[in-house]
Amino acid sequence: MKTKRIFVAIKIDNTHQINELFRQVGFDLDEERIKWVNKNGFHITLLFMGETGMEEMAAIMDKLKTIGADFDVFRLNLKSLGAFPSIEHPRILWAGINSTSGLYKLQEKIRIHLESKVSEDYKYTPHLTIGRIKGGVKNPEKVKKCLLKWKEWEDSELLIDKFVLMESLLTKDGSVYHVLETFSLKNQNV
Fold first, then answer.
1. Of 7, 94, 162, 169, whose CB has the highest number of CB atoms within 10 Å?
2. What are the pLDDT digits (tens) for 24-69?
């Protein structure tokens, strides 16, 4: 059976503030082994579904199209920097999300409609991954200090008027993302 590794996400366009953030954080952490995310692949994952059979794809796309047609546009902005699992032991660097309830309501609606694709212990933590650290950090205090320096950072507000179904291809150089389908939200003239 042919499958695709898929997820639902909001694509985030690169902004001047994101470029400046990358430049300065990259400079501050230039001695660390960080694999920075390609800015063309920026996204906020709404629901990761993993390996999915091709026969399921049409039904998933139909459900997502229905959700989009019935969900209002909303706004969000990126704010602060952090790390998973913690800033003391960083493995993934991320920008946080500041949003009205729109993001959470959209994610919940998608999760409920595609419930057969979600594990029971799933907890949604919206973020924008900006880099991954392999093999640990050389200078944990320097990384922590850098992340705390950007605690009050905030990007300009973004209008979210669509979401996408994406495929994630695993390669030796990391994940490569392809948009399979775009779903518009209603009230485009907001």
1. 94
2. 998 999 999 999 888 888 899 999 988 999 889 999 999 999 999 9
Paired sense of beta strands 174-184 and 162-171, if any: antiparallel
What's the chain's Rg over C-alpha atoms? 17
**pLDDT tens profile 108-122:** 999 988 876 556 666
163's tokens: 């979401």
Return the percent helix, strand and coil in the chain, to nearest 5. Answer: 30, 40, 30
Judge whether 83 and 25 are in contact, CB under 8 Å: no
Report the candidate in 155, 167, 187, 180 with the shortest Cα–Cα distance to residue 61.
180
